[in-house]
Amino acid sequence: GGPLDHVVVTPNPGQAPQGGQRQFTAQGYDADGVAIPGLYAWSIASGGTVDTNGLVTAGPLAGTFTNAVSATSGGVTGYATLVVYAPVIDHFVFDPIAAPVYAGSAFPVTIRAIDQDGNPFSNYTGLAVLTDTTGTITPALTGSFTAGVWTGTVTIATAANGVTIASTGGAATG
């Protein structure tokens, strides 16, 4: 392979919620497109901060910061755009529930709020309505989420196979 010709920074663009994080990576190539290993000096012109490993922490201002993230090696620099967005709740996800679960016996459930880009929505502090396919889950309402997460104990009174539990909060479901 030849000398370092160009550096590609990915993802481009990279999205992060306000105050959230996005990992960027860099890869150098020679003129023929052959990958060259290298160490990179990371910097960011605007939109947030970046650590020595390319982990960007978005600032409080939403917007598109064109070619703001850069990685340099041997005097060659690659750029990527950072898009900082205002997160909104999109849906909920459940952590895996250990099987088996017995009717009438309490079991722990952890529910996480997720934003429109698939990132944890740590600003969610609301409640979620719980339902299940047997119609016998209690409680029917979670407590307040803390940092976008609720963990609690629930009980399903009726035995059934393949029971599905769902949560709804505002316009979000999961």
What this model shows, in words?
The structure is a single chain. This protein has a four-stranded mixed sheet with strand order 2-10-9-6, with no helix packed on it. The protein is an all-beta fold and 174 residues long. It is built from no helices and 17 strands. It is elongated.
Explain the layout of strands and helices.
Layout lengths: L5 E5 L3 E4 L3 E3 L1 E5 L5 E2 L4 E4 L3 E3 L4 E4 L4 E11 L2 E10 L3 E6 L12 E9 L13 E4 L4 E2 L10 E8 L8 E5 L2 E2 L1
Parallel strand pairs: 2-10
Antiparallel strand pairs: 1-4, 3-8, 4-5, 6-9, 7-8, 9-10, 11-12, 12-15, 13-16, 14-15, 16-17
Radius of gyration: 22 Å
**SSE ordering:** EEEEEEEEEEEEEEEEE
> Which class do the helix and strand fractions yield?
mainly beta
Number of helices: 0
**Low confidence ranges:** none
Helix coverage percent of residues? under 10%
Q: Calculate the terminal CA-CA distance, rounded to whole Å.
A: 50 Å
The portion of residues forming beta strands comes to over 45%
Please sum up the structure shown.
By secondary structure, the chain is mainly beta. The chain contains no helices and 17 strands.
